[in-house]
Amino acid sequence: MMIAGLVSCSGDELTNEDLYQDPSKFTISNYVKSNPEFSQLNDALEYTGLMGQTDAQAGLKIFLPNNLALNLFLAENGFASIEDVPVDYMRQVLLNHVIVTDLDLTSAAANSELFVETKATQLFNSENHLTAIVKTIDGVPTVNGVSISNETLTFINGRATEINQIIEPSTLFSIVALSDQFSALKNLVELSGDFTEIRDICDQKFTVTNQAPFTLFVSEDPTLDLVLNGNPDGSISAGQRFSDFINAHLSTEGSFYENMLQDGQTVRTRTRVATAGRDSDGNATLTTTGGFFPNVVNILNDDNAIIQTSNGTIQRVAGSLAAQ
Asked: Collapsing DSSP states into helix, strand and coil, what is residue 84?
């Protein structure tokens, strides 16, 4: 493979040996700097101070957005240039293209769906890395819906694949919309009377650190199926019932997840007020009142029970905050 700018020769004529340069002899940043196809990415890495970090790391699994990808990203988000993007946000967008989960992405097509961790973190909590979905769509491996089917090259400090579209940091909405694990919730959201409003809240892009994050408490499938297929008394429409259920599980006041909840902490969703607690085994709970008896919901903390996105947390729960 010929890599522009890395070719050197001593004679006046180039031979086949001169033209071919083994990518494994160079770092990923060498490749980006020398290839005009990645001039925008080079500028973005310099702008965010990530170029040096890329040189210093080894074992990277990285996707390289070409000029087409970054120009589309700028146009779609109303930015005239890389420097117009808030630097913290641009930094996290780039870090979202680096996978830290131990995963052979070249065999991703063999897996129907996997949650992986990227180097991007939440702007409001830098300890939480963002989740991305590796999924095969129509036979093509994707990350957050973006094709990663191009050839993967091996460099001194890792592997890299060129892509034609930015891998956007996940949001509450994009995870639910893309993941098969949330198909029941996706149906509820799409059929709700407040679909547009709920979508807009859960799909917001966070570009500054002082924006308040959200939490979507996700009930287990049997609970969601009961809401979808239950026999209501007909006093309210199905769309309104679904909206009421989702709003009872959507908080716009913080990122609440199992190991962050404090005993006695108040957690407000759009239509409910709950109190956090710990049971005798130390497991987190949320308790709502308003009916004949308090409604206690257990907060799950097993694999994939907590998913961190760019605008908040998806937290699985056993039960329904809407029940009274």
From this structure: helix
Query: Can you give the CATH number for the domain in which 279 is found?
Result: 2.30.180.10
Domain of 216 in residue numbering reads as: 173-318
Task: Indicate the pLDDT class of residue 13, thresholds 50, 70 and 90.
Answer: low
Q: How many CA atoms lie within 13 A of 202 on its CB side?
A: 27
Total domains, the chain: 2
Rounded to two decimals, the pTM is 0.88
Is 71:81 a contact under the CB 8 Å cutoff?
A: no
The pLDDT score that the predictor gives to residue 70 is 98
Distances (CA, A) of 127 to 101, 135, 183, 217, 251: 16, 25, 29, 21, 21
Mean pLDDT of the chain: 88
Give the tokens for residue 67: 């000029």
- Looking up tokens 């008896």, which residue turns up? 293
232, burial (CB in 10 Å: exposed 0-12, middle 13-18, buried 19+): exposed
Question: What's 247's DSSP letter?
Answer: H
Span of 4-13, 130-139, 145-154, 306-315 with lowest mean pLDDT: 4-13
The reply to whether 184 and 150 lie within a common domain is no
**125-137 and 158-163 strand pairing:** unpaired
Exposure of 166 in the CB half-sphere (CA atoms within 13 A):
24
Residue 158 near residue 62, CB atoms below 8 Å = yes
Domain boundary among the residues 111, 138, 168 is at 168
CB 296 within 8 A of CB 319: yes
Give the integer Cα–Cα distance in Å for 245 and 35: 51
Strands 60-65 and 98-99: antiparallel
Does 215 have pLDDT greater than 70? yes
Q: Which two tokens stand for residue 202?
A: 């859960």
Q: Is the pLDDT of residue 166 over 80?
A: yes
